[in-house]
Amino acid sequence: MKKSKSLVRESRRDNCANKLAGEWVAFANGKIVAHEGTLKKLMKKVKKFKGNQKTSVMLMPKRIEGHFII
Amino acid sequence: MKKEYSYFKRENQYYPLIDVELFGPKETLSVKALIDSGASCSLFRPEIANFLGIPVNSGRKLYFQGIKGKIIGYLHQIPMRLDHKKFDCYIAFSNELDVSFNILGRNNFFLLFLITFNEKNQRILIEENKEDQKRQ
Lengths: 70, 136
Description:
The complex is a heterodimer of chains A (70) and B (136).
Chain A: H1 5-19, E1 24-28, E2 31-36, H2 39-49, E3 55-59
Antiparallel strand pairs in A: 1-2, 1-3
Chain B: E1 2-6, E2 8-10, E3 13-15, E4 17-23, E5 28-35, E6 42-44, H1 46-52, E7 60-65, E8 70-82, E9 85-93, E10 102-104, H2 109-112, E11 113-118, E12 123-128, H3 130-135
Parallel strand pairs in B: 5-10, 6-9
Antiparallel strand pairs in B: 1-12, 2-3, 4-5, 4-8, 7-8, 8-9, 11-12
């Protein structure tokens, strides 16, 4: 059975989040635009190509963090 | 101000993350933070304080009790912007924080906004609390 486009997109996004677990990630318009091991390195990278794009950053949770009940 | 945000998806779980901009003495930074109505205070990653140019340990020392146990955090008052609204937010930074997410707790973020969790559609609605403006 064929997967719908949105399902394919979601599973790609999940795979990406898994690969980047434990890394600092920059988002622009809902998409990942850069990732690095440290926030400092990430911001150096982001500043180079940022232009007018608004980016926001976060530390991607590690797989061992499991479900959050904060 | 009234804005709707989509939840962030991670491993079949959805989290109410929003973008907030923080202003430090050295840098400004836009970060994703989890809206957590169960947290009495906001708690952010120490790397963020370092990037902004804020010495973590210079804030007021506080203990935070979680499910796992107690951690030490340092409370700071930091200019923050959500959409077009700029205000001072109390944020604690902790070197002992195990969680990757930055946490936006009730004090004082929840005083300024009316926050609606639309769990079914995985969306969060944030609007300015007009009562708060009247009080000021």
